Amino acid sequence: MKILIVLSHLMTKDCVLEVESVARANLAIEKFSTNEYDRLITTGWAYRDDCETAIADVVKKHILDNSSIKESSITSITKSRDTVGDAFYCLEFVNNMKITKLHVVTSDYHMNRTKIVFNHIFNNSVPIEVFGANTLFSADPSVANHENQSLHAFFQTFKGVDFASRKEIFTAMVENHPFYNGKVFAKVSRRVIGLYDSHNGANSDNLRSLQKGEGKCNSLGYTLKGQ
């Protein structure tokens, strides 16, 4: 099976995708419309405290409204809160599938970190290629610094983890990652492992952000909702 994943960025309280999210979604439409892929995955939780809808579902709606892609071809994964979660919950979803191609759409400045994170989480088990939507930030030193901080935090979070074990990955994520262990957002239940509920966007977890700061690195190193 050939999979295309599009990572979400930001949206308004009225569920309107911001420029970067639109650029990513449109690039995903362009790629998927070549008929190279079997499934399109959108990612991202209901991260705003003033909006009930998961951004994965908003991206999915944008794709359906602006293309001829069938709804049955798209899966929304609404549990992920950052790039690490995107990779892990996608791994959970495709775990029992025979994947021959896995491509990821993000922003140009985020391509390197995305490839590193996905290669680690997937334990180099499938060739991963990353495509970047054009932005104004590809040569911005402050954005590059945020990316490096988040990558450093990733390696600290998963230090010593055997990436061949989904259980070890998940345990490290819910114990060490501030977006999943309760330090920044509501703590994720450890019962999630192995029980991923795939759906087409009808059932988000509706957890809410406990602090603001979208798109900037917090003191713990990870990027707050600006994947």
Main features:
227 residues; Rossmann fold; alpha/beta
SSE topology:
Blueprint (H helix, E strand, L loop, with lengths): L1 E5 L12 H14 L6 E5 L11 H11 L8 E4 L5 H12 L6 E7 L3 H11 L6 E6 L7 H17 L8 H11 L51
Parallel strand pairs: 1-2, 1-4, 2-3, 4-5
Summarize, please.
The chain is an alpha/beta fold. It contains six helices and five strands; from the N terminus they run βαβαβαβαβαα. Helix 1 packs across helix 2 and helix 3 crosses helix 4.
Give structural notes.
The chain has 227 residues and is of the alpha/beta class. The chain has a single domain, classed as Rossmann fold. Helix content is 33%, strand content 12%. The protein has six helices and five strands, in the order βαβαβαβαβαα. The protein has a five-stranded parallel sheet with strand order 3-2-1-4-5, sandwiched between helices. Helix 1 packs across helix 2, helix 3 crosses helix 4 and helix 3 packs antiparallel against helix 6. The chain is globular and about 45 Å long. The protein starts with a strand and ends in a 51-residue tail after the last helix.
